[in-house]
Amino acid sequence: MEILTFGPSQTKKIGEVLAKDILKTSANKALVLGLVGDLGGGKTTFLQGFARGLGIKEKILSPTFVIFRKFKIQSSSFYFFYHFDCYRLKRKEEILDLGLEKIISNSQNIVAIEWADRIKKIMPEETLWIEFEFIDTKTRKINFIS
Ligand code: ADP
Ligand code: MG
């Protein structure tokens, strides 16, 4: 499914709606989002709305020096939201050293990973892949792949 957005607030809104939907579900593994596509395509912007939809008050930033941040979720089915960004990852092993495998096997976690194509081999099969494309200054194409 492809969606065009015409400004950051629209991209955030789509993230927020998805998060609220996800909170109504539960699974026996973590819920994992793989965000891929252009630099400036709106991955972090999308996750700002997504975090808002999860009820997180803290601001979601592009992690520059950290690979991931962890947030508490106040909901009945999920306990934590992890935001990973593989942009600065030098070796795949770095993210494994951070305990990614344990994090994605815990059904209490929601895990969003920017630049997840860089660690494609270790992404779970059930990953919800979302691709972001820069169209022009204000326009982005968001493609829910599956
Ligand atoms: P990425 O994480 O994919 O590198 P960011 O979300 O950090 O991208 O950056 C997207 C930039 O583009 C932001 O500065 C945002 O304000 C701007 N922007 C303009 N139009 C849109 C849109 N339709 N959707 C998302 N971001 C947009
Ligand atoms: Mg980003």
Summarize the structure.
The protein is α/β, with parallel strands linked by helices and 146 residues long.
The tally of strands reads 7
Mean pLDDT across every amino acid position: 94
Q: Assign an overall shape.
A: globular
Gyration radius (Cα, Å) is 14 Å
Beta-strand share of residues: 25-35%
Distance between the termini: 8 Å
**List of distinct ligands in this structure:** adenosine-5'-diphosphate, magnesium ion
Question: Uncertain segments of ≥5 residues (pLDDT<50)?
Answer: none
Number of helices: 4
Q: What is the H/E order?
A: EHEHEEHHEEE
> Assembly type of the shown chains?
single chain
List keywords for this structure.
alpha/beta, seven-stranded mixed sheet, globular, binds adenosine-5'-diphosphate
Question: How would you summarize the topology of this molecule?
Answer:
Blueprint: E1 2-5, H1 8-23, E2 31-37, H2 43-53, E3 68-72, E4 80-85, H3 92-97, H4 100-105, E5 109-114, E6 128-136, E7 139-145
Parallel strand pairs: 2-5, 2-6, 4-5
Antiparallel strand pairs: 1-7, 3-4, 6-7
Helix pairs in contact: 1-2
Bound molecules: adenosine-5'-diphosphate and magnesium ion.
